[in-house]
Design goal:
alpha+beta, three-stranded antiparallel beta sheet, 3 helices, about 60% helix
Length: about 100
């Protein structure tokens, strides 16, 4: 029982290190020929949105551009996350969780 608790604590510590490292990363997604920009940190939190005023008169184009910019940022941040996970031992973390669940 105590072994599992220690394993769980170790896994939480590793996850916290990865989460902290990701919070310092930043990506920018854009759409609408750069008229909509969305900045997101490595934990997929949107930190900034910039919209060119020329899009404010066309709600449909604006909505599509915002959606596309967010999706672009998510794709980019997922690449960053995968790289950080690899660099910081995130693959080991996933394996540790799987092994702990088997026992």
């Amino acid at each position: 029982m105590f072994t599992k608790l220690k394993q769980f604590k170790d896994i939480r510590s590793k996850a916290k290190v990865i989460q902290d490292a990701l919070s310092h990363e930043s990506v920018e997604g854009s759409a609408g020929w750069g008229k909509v920009k969305v900045k997101m940190d490595g934990n997929q939190k949107v930190t900034d949105v910039q919209i060119d005023p020329s899009l404010l008169t066309d709600a449909k184009t604006l909505a599509t551009s915002v959606k596309d910019a967010v999706n672009d940022a998510v794709t980019k941040v997922q690449r960053v996350m995968a790289s950080k996970m690899k660099d910081l031992g995130g693959n080991d973390l996933a394996r540790d969780v799987q092994e702990m669940m088997k026992k």
